Amino acid sequence: MLNNPNGATPRLSAAHIKVSRKPAPTFFERLKALVADCGTNRNDQVIVLATACIGEGIDTTKHICEVLAHLGFKTAHVAMILKTNTGGNPDRHLWSKDAAGRHRLLG
């Protein structure tokens, strides 16, 4: 017992406990984690990151190149990967592109 003369269990309060929430990772932090998870092959990294960008609504070649350049990728390399993997054949391509220049995920 805690020096309580009547023998009752003292009430404890959690009012002094501060709960802190870890902020949700930013889009760039999530992309950096993807790079770390998908190995050292730069082509694979670009494919994974471009797919993530398209899924988040960053879907033009220009914007995808800008985002990946911010992560250290060469825009010419990103544009080449996008071009090579864009088309209408799901057996060969990862993305399609509409008349407005917006990429979409295939399959």
How would you sum up this structure in a few lines?
With 107 residues, this protein is mainly alpha-helical. 42% of the residues lie in helices and 6% in strands.
Secondary-structure blueprint:
Layout: H1 27-37, H2 42-55, H3 61-70, H4 75-84, E1 95-97, E2 103-105
Antiparallel strand pairs: 1-2
Helix pairs in contact: 2-4, 3-4
Would you mind describing this structure in some detail?
The chain is mainly alpha-helical. Helix content is 42%, strand content 6%. The chain contains 4 helices and 2 strands, in the order H-H-H-H-E-E. The protein has a two-stranded antiparallel sheet with strand order 1-2. The model has no long low-confidence stretch (mean pLDDT 90).
Unreliably modeled segments: none
Main β sheet profile: 2 strands, antiparallel
Report the count of strand segments: 2
Q: Provide the gyration radius in Å.
A: 25 Å
Distance between the termini: 66 Å
What is the arithmetic mean of pLDDT? 90
